[in-house]
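A reminder from the course coordinator: this example appears on the midterm review sheet, so study it carefully.

Given structure:
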């Protein structure tokens, strides 16, 4: 693995074999990148400036999906969602509202890493750390999200609860960009 900056300069990531094949990649606001490995079921934190591996979180249970919010990793194992400190990697708490409502939804960060968006066929929901509720932003039954002929490929927060979503059709031979 290498880090390529905007000027085209390359920097090797130390111990990149720890990362392996990636299932997911997330950024935080502190110049770190997080890799979720298929092979090792670990989240590896790498400093973007130095290229050094800073922390590796390995759990006994499968890591299904994750996001970085402020100073926390929010991790789903497919049954429950827990909050971990990004620096110490210690589990801080189970997040009940996400554990009860977000298992079949995909996770996406806001641009400022303070809000996470949960996206699926039922719609788009927002969650901020400490909240006890999920706010429904888009009803899936009234959008392409609820249409079984569309498969969500990528979802990006652009500003003020506006989004771009990339879908493929059920044959994966056409792609659609939608603005919400």
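Designed residues:
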């Amino acid at each position: 693995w290498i880090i390529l900056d905007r000027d085209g300069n390359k920097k090797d990531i130390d111990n990149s074999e720890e990362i392996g094949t990636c299932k997911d990649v997330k950024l935080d606001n502190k110049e770190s990148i997080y890799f979720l490995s298929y092979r090792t079921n670990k989240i590896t934190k790498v400093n973007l400036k130095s290229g050094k591996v800073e922390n590796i979180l390995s759990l006994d249970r499968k890591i299904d999906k994750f996001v970085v919010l402020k100073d926390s990793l929010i991790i789903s194992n497919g049954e429950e969602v827990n909050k971990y400190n990004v620096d110490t990697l210690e589990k801080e708490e189970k997040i009940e509202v996400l554990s009860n409502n977000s298992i079949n939804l995909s996770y996406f960060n806001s641009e400022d890493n303070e809000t996470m968006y949960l996206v699926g066929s039922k719609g788009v929901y927002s969650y901020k750390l400490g909240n006890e509720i999920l706010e429904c932003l888009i009803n899936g039954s009234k959008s392409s999200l609820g249409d079984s002929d569309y498969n969500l490929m990528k979802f990006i927060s652009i500003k003020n609860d506006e989004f771009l979503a990339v879908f493929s059709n059920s044959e994966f031979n056409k792609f659609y960009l939608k603005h919400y």
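The chain has a mean pLDDT of 85. The helical segments are 96-101.
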